[in-house]
Amino acid sequence: MAFTAVVRITGAGRLAEFRERLRWLLVRDPDAEDYTEHHEGDMLEYRFIPKKGIPFPAFAQASGDFPELRVEAEWSHDGEQGRAVIENGSVVNEERGEAPVAGVAVDVADEGRLELALICERQGDGWIGYAASADRHTYFRYEDGKLSLVGPQDADEALEEAAFRLIDEWLWYDEEEAPTERAHYAQYGYPVRGANLRSEKLALLRRRAEPYSTLDAHAAAVRAALVAQWLNRA
Asked: 21, 131, 137, 203: which has the fewest Cβ within 10 Å?
């Protein structure tokens, strides 16, 4: 199968200077391969169909010269998918072959405000799950067309496990120290709220024209009930 890769550079920083620095490094790299370059707003994107691999050393070196910018690489090779994030010249996160969490829907509003993040999973004939917006959160159960909200004090182990699956991949909260996340939000010029998207997920959604979803088609009714009965009510 083909080896394809995309590298994106984002952040409130010196994108034009990063671009020139990277070009200089790639020209002098004897192993560098052909690529296409795309520049849109506050993002640079490089696309590769490499034979040897992604030129990580050049991107890491350029990242060290521009620590305020974030370098995010995604690739697919022989059926395996991978992702790596470089900040200040070092790889800070790398994933290989991990499938996205199922049953998740996330929508973001202006200035990175978390509109809604939810996870729902089958339990018997119904559904259980967890949802968060920028300023509140809830557990829930859904059965026979009826939604029941569940407070944190009443959440059982299954509800808590579902919530952690969403939180671990997508969210961070204001009570956390999270210095790297706070720095990214400051670079974007976005305020930190009660619940926030992880910066790599925020970058993903900023590139999309529609909300993110891995929901089962049958879960649409659950989401609709949650929006009507919880999200849209004060």
From this structure: 21
Provide the 3-class DSSP secondary structure of residue 184: helix
Q: What are the DSSP calls for 124-151, one per residue?
A: TTEEEEEEE-SS-EEEEEEETTEEEEE-
DSSP-derived letter for residue 191 is P
| Contact call for residues 94 and 83 (beta carbons, < 8 A) | yes
Residue type, 38: H
The C-alpha atoms of residue 183 and residue 163 are separated, in whole angstroms, by 25
Q: Can you tell me the distance from the alpha carbon of 158 to that of 47, in angstroms, rounded to the nearest whole number? A: 41
User: What pLDDT band is residue 195 in, cutting at 50, 70 and 90?
Assistant: very high
Q: Which has more pLDDT, 4 or 175?
A: 175
Global confidence as pTM = 0.62
Pairing of strands 126-132, 80-87: unpaired
Give the rounded percent of residues in the chain with a pLDDT score beyond 70: 90
Spell 7-24 as b/e; 16+ CB within 10 A means b. Answer: bbbbbebebeebbebbee
pLDDT in tens, 99-114: 566 789 999 999 999 9
